[in-house]
Write a structure and sequence with these properties.
- The protein is an alpha+beta fold.
- Helix content is 17%, strand content 44%.
- The protein has an eight-stranded mixed β-sheet with strand order 2-3-4-1-5-8-7-6.
């Protein structure tokens, strides 16, 4: 079983300026506007997201997001490998996603999620 796509989320203090750069300068397609986060298509199945944050510390706000329909399967597999789950799968109504969180050996935050938002279409 593999993942369907990837999003790397990065924090920004100025989402409007960030949006102008990625949309007007780099001409990236806005895949999804979540008000506080904007997700851009970089390549087929590859995305970068920027989320508004007032204060940014090193490594703060960096999230590697792996998209799959099988969030619960990954929880089971990771648990079998004795990987500590920081947040078990839960529905997040603000972003309309089903998500879980864990950390890699470098302490980077990994989110495994499924979009429930009908506007999100990874394949288009």
């Amino acid at each position: 079983m593999s993942f369907d796509s990837i999003i790397t989320f990065l924090p920004t203090r100025d989402l409007k300026q960030t949006a102008r750069f990625y949309e007007d300068v780099l001409k990236l397609e806005l895949a999804l506007d979540q008000t506080r986060c904007r997700i851009y298509r970089v390549a087929q199945g590859g995305f970068v997201g920027f989320c508004l944050k007032d204060e940014i510390k090193p490594h703060d706000g960096v999230i590697l997001t792996l998209i799959t329909e099988e969030v619960d399967h990954w929880q089971t597999l990771l648990t079998e490998h004795e990987v500590a789950i920081e947040t078990p799968p839960v529905f997040n109504p603000e972003f309309q996603i089903y998500q879980m969180f864990l950390r890699d050996p470098n302490s980077y935050l990994i989110e495994i999620q499924r979009f429930e938002d009908p506007q999100w279409n990874v394949k288009s």
